[in-house]
Design brief:
Blueprint: H1 23-35, E1 38-39, H2 45-49, E2 53-55, E3 62-65, H3 68-108, E4 115-119, H4 121-134, E5 138-142, H5 150-165, E6 169-175, H6 182-193, E7 197-201, E8 208-211, E9 215-219, E10 226-230, H7 233-249, E11 251-252, H8 263-278, H9 283-290, H10 294-308, H11 313-323
Parallel strand pairs: 5-6, 6-7
Antiparallel strand pairs: 1-3, 2-3, 4-10, 5-8, 7-11, 8-9, 9-10
Helix pairs in contact: 5-6, 8-11, 9-10
Length: about 325
């Protein structure tokens, strides 16, 4: 009988399954062990496939049982040999790819890194100074979180004025809440007289600085005093487009005009707060996101609650969603 080393054939009885030997096979093997052999037509196919029953050379047409340990050499041997060949192929392919990885790394080693993590205020400050010095056309900046710290504005003002006086366009987006921050407004008034353009939105997703269309800086994850310098042209263009889209939706700040809180700004802030209420956010979460005080957010929410007759936060969310207040 010619052995088939392509793998065990499926059992030809109805009770077989891929991981269970059928009861007729167990019964037939038990009978063969007791009788010494069985007629070939009484032996289920799975026993022959597992090499547990082989042809009796002294009695053609009959099969004799083989110890499972002996049968395992015929059944498992070809499988183990195939696995060994695949492992050799895997090692060879991995070794070859390692050689090419070295060539690839050598070819790109001299190229500037498209993404560079910067850690520490001093390192980030030097990188920004280099970006300002190398800028030729425009600086785009977006700052979340309401009014900016005094020391940051004092450091930025001389640099920004120099940039503007050498013909660099500067566009900045803040959140609406800076319109109530005297320090930030004083800075805005100073730079706008030099030609800077400043606008505000209810919410600014994150800080972005883009120099021309070839260099950008964004925060590195949520780590403090850490930034990502981006020099990949496609990513920088994406960030510039993202800024331009936000700029088109924002409201100009003109410090010489009073009041700064225009109806558009007030409506935009209220709509953003109410959208957050409908989304289930707390006053503290909304305040942090919009750069406002928690008390100011609570006051907005209180007035709308009284207007709609709401008796709970959950009811307020439902009433706001169905009242039409969020419609543009």
């Amino acid at each position: 009988m010619k052995d088939d080393h392509s793998g065990p054939r499926a059992c030809d009885c109805r009770e077989s399954s891929p991981n269970r030997v059928c009861d007729p096979a167990l019964a037939a093997y038990r009978r063969a062990l007791a009788d010494g052999s069985l007629p070939a037509d009484e032996v289920p196919g799975c026993l022959s496939a597992l090499h547990l029953m082989v042809e009796d050379r002294d009695a053609p047409g009959r099969l004799v049982p083989v110890p499972p340990e002996t049968a395992s050499f015929d059944v498992l041997g070809p499988i183990e040999a195939a696995i060994a060949r695949q492992r050799r192929t895997l090692r060879s392919a991995r070794a070859a790819l390692t050689v090419f990885e070295g060539l690839y790394a050598d070819a790109h080693r001299l190229e500037p890194s498209a993404l560079t993590r910067l850690s520490g205020e001093a390192v980030i400050g030097k990188a920004l100074e280099a970006g300002v010095a190398g800028c030729r056309e425009e600086v785009r900046t977006a700052h979340p979180g309401g009014g900016r710290p005094v020391h940051v504005l004092e450091e930025s003002l001389p640099r920004d004025v120099r940039n503007l006086r050498r013909g660099i366009r500067q566009r900045t987006i803040y959140q609406h809440t800076v319109r109530s921050d005297r320090t930030t407004l004083a800075y805005i008034e100073r730079v706008t007289t030099e030609g800077a353009e400043v606008r505000t939105l209810a919410e600014v997703a994150d800080r972005i600085i883009v120099f021309d269309r070839n260099l950008a800086f964004v925060p590195f994850s949520d780590e403090p005093h850490s930034a990502l310098r981006i020099q990949h042209p496609s990513l920088v263009r994406f960030l510039a487009r993202h800024f331009d889209e936000a700029w088109a939706r924002s409201v100009p700040v003109r410090p010489e005009r009073v009041p700064l809180r225009t109806p558009v700004v007030t409506s935009d802030l209220q709509r953003t707060i109410l959208q957050a209420v409908v989304g289930g956010e707390t006053d503290q979460s909304i305040a942090r996101r919009l750069g406002m005080s928690r008390r100011s957010v609570a006051e907005h929410v209180r007035r709308v609650s009284e207007q709609l007759g709401s008796k709970s936060r959950a009811q307020l969310g439902y009433l706001v969603a169905t009242s039409g207040l969020l419609e543009a």
